[in-house]
Amino acid sequence: MANLLIIGAGGVSRVATVKCAMNLDTFSKITLASRTKSKCDEIAAFIKERLGVEIETAQIDADDSDAVVELIKKTGAQILLNVALPYQDLSLMDACIKAGIHYIDTANYEHPDVAKFEYKEQWARNDKFKQAGILGLLGSGFDPGVTNVFCAYAQQNLFDEISYIDILDCNAGDHGYAFATNFNPEINLREVSAKGRYWENGKWIETDPMEIKMEWDYPEVGVKDSYLLYHEELESLVKNIKGLKRIRFFMTFGQSYLTHMKCLENVGMLGIKPVMHQGKEIIPIEFLKTLLPDPASLGPRTKGYTNIGCVIRGIKDGKDKQVYIYNVCNHEECYKETGAQAVSYTTGVPAMIGAKLVAQKIWQGKGVFNMEEFDAKPFMEELNLQGLPWKIIEMTPSLGE
Ligand code: NDP
């Protein structure tokens, strides 16, 4: 039984916290803390009404490491689940080092002033985590997260060697707005407006944003335009999947989303540097966030499915083999269960599962780890039990040709 502190109270947090409250055999005490305490209280009230479970709430500035250490001591937490924003990763990791408790997050660190996605600064804390005798589990969402676990499962159980991986992320949900983002707009727009990048034959190849497009037939969803993006799990998978020749990441976007994004970019609304407006400094992308629908408000409006998975090609028993491992999730069912749509659901459920496996010491170690460094089977079993069932289909090998 573990005492858990969850930081952040957005869509992902709502799902993770509800799911933790559904796993009380693992989590004996849950405290939900965030910048705006009223958002924690609203989630706590939802959980009390739906599940009859009481959780604690608190106000915290996650950028203030010392204040987080105080809160950890006050709550007696043994594990911290970070579902705030990527900007808070380092201060929360440092708080865990000081307090000597395990750390889990769903997205790699980003500096507020530089749109750059890399694990460097989090991996650099490996020695400190080792010395403190604690585990840091990085990227326990869907992608990164479940996609890393799918690759690890394939490596550990389905292949002797893996050569090609394509990660395919499709959100075919319709919220009825001409333009909105399904999770934090700032993080989302920074990610999709950045240059694309993939890894082939030992080196990174950079592309212009949205330069590479393919059509992919997503099971239970249909054919969708999918665009090559850089995504953070590529960095750790390149390191941890041995023998890899190429790995890429694709995400679907509708034409309306792309047209809006291009316009906003052209007029400077995606800028992350301050500009002067009527004598006041504003950051364009932060102002845009104020104008756009709150991702949490999309829940009751979103219909349709997500399909996220990995197509993996390699060798098994001397034969060429290709599999597709994926999960399909229904926006409306996610909303019915947790009050959040499928993008939050597909991230919040794996965040809870990561915390659960660490709490149960099924995944253990000292230092900072990515998801694919652990035995994938227990995580795959939990996905089936906790609302994200997966399928594996064998395909005629074609990836890489
Ligand atoms: P939201 O913006 O909905 O929620 C973020 C929460 O963090 C808000 O409650 C916010 O507080 C809180 N927060 C922000 N800054 C601070 C701070 N300094 N101190 C305390 N709390 C703070 O984001 P999402 O729920 O959509 O996303 C959460 C995380 O999940 C992000 O890191 C995102 O990148 C990641 N993610 C990962 C995915 C994956 O598959 N791996 C997919 C989707 C998201 P306030 O309410 O006051 O604004």
Automatic annotation (TrEMBL):
Q: Which domain of life is it from?
A: Bacteria
| Residue span(s) of domain Saccharopine dehydrogenase NADP binding | 5-135
Question: Which InterPro entries does the entry mention?
Answer: NAD(P)-bd_dom_sf, Sacchrp_dh-like_C, Sacchrp_dh_NADP-bd
- Return the Pfam families for the record: Sacchrp_dh_C, Sacchrp_dh_NADP
Every copy of the Saccharopine dehydrogenase-like C-terminal domain together lies at: 141-387
Protein's recorded name: Saccharopine dehydrogenase family protein
